[in-house]
Each structure stands twice: as C-alpha cells, then as structure tokens.
Specification:
Number of helices of chain A: 2
Largest interface: A-B, 41 and 35 residues
CATH topology of chain B: Rossmann fold
Distance between the termini of chain B: 52 Å
Shape of chain B: globular
CATH topology of one domain in chain A: hypothetical protein PF0899 fold
Helix content of chain A: 10-25%
Number of helices of chain B: 8
Helix content of chain B: 25-40%
Number of domains of chain B: 1
CATH class of one domain in chain A: Alpha Beta
CATH superfamily of chain B: P-loop containing nucleotide triphosphate hydrolases
Strand content of chain B: 15-25%
Strand order of the largest sheet of chain A: 2-1-6
Radius of gyration of chain B: 18 Å
Shape of chain A: elongated
Structural class of chain A: alpha+beta
Structural class of chain B: alpha/beta
Order of helices and strands of chain B: EHEHEHEHEEHHEHEH
Number of strands of chain B: 8
Strand content of chain A: 25-35%
Largest sheet of chain B: 7 strands, parallel
Strand order of the largest sheet of chain B: 4-3-5-2-6-7-8
CATH architecture of chain B: 3-Layer(aba) Sandwich
Number of strands of chain A: 6
Order of helices and strands of chain A: HEHEEEEE
Distance between the termini of chain A: 32 Å
Largest sheet of chain A: 3 strands, mixed
CATH architecture of one domain in chain A: 2-Layer Sandwich
Oligomer: heterodimer
CATH class of chain B: Alpha Beta
Chain lengths: 113, 224
C-alpha cells in the first residue's frame, strides 16, 4: 500500500549510502521483501521507475527475494514457516505463536557496471 | 558487472529518527502511545473518553494524524490540552520525521502521556516505528472477528488491543470469543480490553493500564 514511499526511501538510501559511487550505471537493485510487509512488487517497481528519473537509478531494474513468514511456537519454541495465519505448531499442535519474520524491507545488493 | 553488498533496511532513516525521538521522549519522561486501527474503529472517541478520565490529573498531549482534515484535532482541542496536527496529504501512515516536526508544537517536558493517533490503516503504519513506548490497536466489533489474522503484522506488534463498540454486540453477528482467540493466536502476550465509547465499558480499565504503565516506566527510569 505504501509502495511510493518505499520507492522514494530506496532511492534516498542508495544516494546517501553511496554518494561517490564510481560506475557507469546501476544495472539492478535486489530487495528482500517480507510476505507481511504489505508491498506489491509490481507497484513498487512502477513507482521506482517514475521516481528514479534523472537520478543515478534511472533505468535500474528491481529484483525481489521474498522473505517467508516465520513464527515461534509459544509453548515448545519450535520455529516454523507459514503461508497464512491459519496454522498450528507442527511439533506440539499448539495454536499460539509469535511472529519473528516476514516484515522485512531490505536492500540486499546492487549490480553495477 | 560488479555486485555491491548493501544489506540495509529500506526504512533505516525512519528508524534512526524514531530512535532519536525515543531518546527525547525518555528524557522528557513522557509515556508515548501510538494508536493504530482501521478507519472508523473509534480512535478519536477512545482518546476523548480517556482524556475525560485521566486529564487533568495527568498532563496529556495528542498528535493527530490525518490524511486530509483537521476535524479530529479540533475535537481534541476542546479539552484544552496541547494538540499537534499532521495532515499527510494522501500518505497512508505517519512517519518518524512527521512526529519530529509535530513535537516542536508541544510542551514535551510538561507532558505525562502523549497519544499519537495514526492514520486509519491496518497495513502501512505497522512498518513505521515512531519512537513510541506502546502500540495500541483498536478493532471495533463491526469489523469482523478475523481482522487479527488478516492484518497480523499490526496485531503482533501491538501490546494492547481495545475491542471497541461492544455496545453494538446485541445487534450484530460477532463472536467476541473467536475474535480474542484469533488475536491471541498471533500475539499470546496481547492485553485485551473490551471497550465502548457509548456506555464507557472498559474505559476505566484501559485508563488504569495507562497509569500503571506510566508508573512502571517512571519507576524503571528512577532505578536506571
């Protein structure tokens, strides 16, 4: 839902962290996007292309690595991955857990030439 | 071609500003609550009912986040307490830099409690830390009992759930036991209060939670 802001944050972060980047162009930026982050990759790509015009990131492609939802069982501490919230612990069948992963919004790396 | 490792959080800047805000809040000894919910679940009404009970015994400030209008801020201003308005102009969440500007309009050092009323949205605000001590999620009984499972990020990051508009329960099909079970499934430590701004059910208990947390926080900072 907040893809425009996230696209702007990606551009600003790269400009701030790599102010003297010595390359012809940034070919691609790889992102880690958690399944719980509420980010729709196609929409993020759209805003990124629009907002990166006239910056070093113009024409840079985005690629995505999805981060699964990871939870820890509240009873036996088994860590397991789920697709939606309708799961119980595979070890002890308890239904309560704490979410420990799946809301990642990270830049992994970038490919430059 | 060369691969340059970045490994940075996209919201790094927001998190840095939020950490600075948290420091300011702690220095000012103010307990900050980020109120989140879907639109229309009763955030402003809960704050109004809360103010009636805890103010003026406690000095309270409010930051009102709204996409377009200042209607909510005007409602809160009637209580003669410090209010700062943030109009996001379409942005669907509050960010730490917005709070950084808003607190300049507030006498932070004189406050005991600061409410931040976030934009009504159960998705985006969960990604943006604002330096708060507690995230409180409000869910009204008209929204359906499956809300916690549909918006797990928000419910799992909150420490309190106010299940609001309980006065409507006799008129609607809503299984409150099931709703609580769903909320506790993804956040077993969640404190749940049933509230109504119509007949004031649960408001006193919710206010007790605030005053207790404030005492605990101040006790810890004295010991620390």
């Amino acid at each position: 839902m907040h893809e425009a802001t996230i696209a702007k944050n990606i551009i600003e972060l790269i400009q701030t962290e790599f102010p003297e980047l010595n390359c012809k162009r940034i070919y691609s930026v790889k992102l880690r996007i958690g399944e719980l982050s509420g980010i729709y990759p196609e929409s993020l790509e759209y805003y990124f292309q629009e907002l990166s015009k006239n910056t070093i990131l113009e024409n840079t492609k985005l690629s995505f690595e999805k981060a699964p939802i990871k939870v820890i069982c509240a009873v036996c501490s088994t860590i397991f991955e789920i697709i939606n919230m309708d799961y119980d612990c595979p070890n002890c069948k308890n239904s309560q857990f704490n979410i420990i992963g799946g809301d990642e919004l990270e830049i992994i790396n970038m490919e430059v030439e | 071609m060369e691969i340059i490792t970045v490994e940075q959080k996209i919201l790094k800047k927001n998190d840095e500003i939020a950490a600075d805000l948290r420091k300011k809040f702690d220095e000012a000894n103010v307990f900050v609550i980020n109120m989140v919910s879907s639109p229309g679940s009763g955030k402003t009404s809960i704050i109004e009912r809360t103010l009636k009970i805890i103010s003026p015994a406690l000095s309270v400030g409010v930051i009102e986040g709204d996409i377009q209008t200042s209607i909510d801020a005007e409602r809160i201003a009637q209580f003669n307490i410090p209010v700062a308005q943030i109009i996001t102009n379409g942005t669907c969440h509050l960010e730490a830099r917005m709070i950084e500007q808003a607190i300049n309009q507030l006498p932070l050092k004189d406050l005991d409690v600061l409410f931040i009323e976030n934009v009504g949205n159960l998705v985006c605000p969960s990604s943006y830390y604002l330096g708060e001590h507690a995230k409180v999620v409000i869910m009204s009984v008209t929204e359906g009992e499956d809300k916690p499972l549909k918006y797990p990020a928000m419910f799992s990051k909150s420490c309190v759930l106010l299940m609001n508009k309980t006065d409507l329960l006799p008129h609607i099909i809503f299984d409150i036991t099931k709703a609580k079970k769903f909320a506790l499934k993804i956040n077993p430590d969640l404190k749940i209060y049933e509230t109504s701004c119509y007949d004031n059910t649960g408001i006193m208990q919710w206010c007790d939670w605030i005053t207790n947390e404030l005492k605990l926080k101040r006790c810890k900072s004295t010991i620390g």
